[in-house]
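Appendix B, example 12.
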Amino acid sequence: MRGLIIAGVIVALIAIMGISGYNSLITLNEGINGKWAQVENQLQRRADLIPNLVATVKGYAAHEQTAIQSVADARAKLAGAQGPAAKAEANSELSGALSRLLVVVENYPNLKADQNFRALQDELAGTENRLAVARKDYNDSVQVYNTKIRSFPSSIYAGMLGFSAKEYFKAEEGAKQTPKVQF
């Protein structure tokens, strides 16, 4: 009888540990989903600001249509991207297009002094900062989750329960190179 009670207690402890581990994985997975939603929120905020920035630049530099069109095309690509890898690639393309647009701005001193343009540029800079924070928070959550599903004893049941590694939001190509500023 005593052996049966001990076996029952061991089975109960294993069940409690399994339920606790499963709930922990669910919590981490939902945390990642929430952080990813915030990254998408900031990407959308950025995409929403861009038409106003483009319209302002267009008013001053109507003949710079190529730079303006590349920003619009990159914004559309970002809006249609699915998943961290596709969003990161589209984000990289949009960053490059915005850089080219800002080079156009350098050629129009009146545009740089325009209050609407300056306000939009400040909003865009704030959004870029928020986006950087959201990407960091997302990647931190992915790191915790991926570590958990690869660590013992979670690794035993994580795969059986359908938990797999998540993608990091990776830096765009060329991000390690220092940008060249010319005056």
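Residues 178-183 have pLDDT under 50 and may be disordered. The CA atoms of residues 114 and 131 lie 26 Å apart.
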